[in-house]
Amino acid sequence: MALTLNLQKSSGTLKLSLQKSGIHTMPVLDMAMVLDVSGSFEDEHLDGTTTDLLTRLAPWGLTFDPDKKIDILTFSNGAASAHLVGALNEDNYQGYVRNHIVNKVPGWNGATDYSYVLERTLKEFGWIKGEAKKAGFLGRMLGQKDEAAKAKKRSLVIFITDGDNNDKERTRQVLRESEARRDEVYFLFLGVSNGGGRFSFLESIGDAFGNTGFREIANVRQFITKSDEDINAFLLDDELIGWLKS
User: Fold this and answer.
1) Phi, psi (5° rounding) for residue 233?
2) Per the database record, which ranges form the VWFA domain (predicted)?
3) Are 186 and 206 in contact (CB under 8 A)?
4) Which CATH number fits domain 27-128+152-245: 3.30.43.10, 3.40.50.970, 3.40.50.410, 3.40.50.2300?
5) What is the pLDDT of residues 167-207, one digit of tens each?
6) Nearest to 73 by CA among 59, 62, 83, 63
7) Cα angle at 120 between 174 and 75, to 5 degrees?
8) 190: left (phi over 0), alpha (psi -120 to 50) or beta
9) Cβ distance 119 to 84 under 8 Å?
10) What's this model's pTM, rounded to 2 decimal places?
């Protein structure tokens, strides 16, 4: 049975957790969650586990995002798999993965590259310049205008993966360049596992970059049953609190 949550109540609990950490004015952040859709994660997508995980994180969107939503992106391997699914909000969070992702997104059941979807996310929030679409001749005749460049938005990105990636150096390069540009983006990587010990690369980038954190969820089915207070305590370490205060 799908998890149902009082998102407003959970958002209130998150605000209390932040206030205890010295954050009394809630930061305004665009929120995104990036979800791995490689083949090894299929069982958790099909049985609703990842939908429940997104549900437990949905209050972060209500708390931080000015539009009370979280943009959802998916990925497996290669640039073509980096896909903006849409927004998760209070009205559509139930069954989100099955309704919008399973067998519907490019790269479903592929391999695993992190760098391309990281780039896509940075483009969505304006930190990497994307290719603006220009109106064609007929479009201009009909009054269409060239698409404006995306505005830079301070953003928190929760990146959910169940395994190792094949593009380690390219991923480091994307994060290195983002940090050098001083992009106002924090990447919180969640390594989801039932076996443990598969996330040495995520640990290494969590240590290497000031705007990148890592948490291992060793038993995701147990994790989604935790209290809001316990989930907030697990995710809000000193580095993330410091970034939220900055």
Assistant:
1) -65, -35
2) 30-240
3) no
4) 3.40.50.410
5) 999 999 999 999 999 999 999 999 998 655 579 999 999 99
6) 83
7) 100
8) beta
9) no
10) 0.91
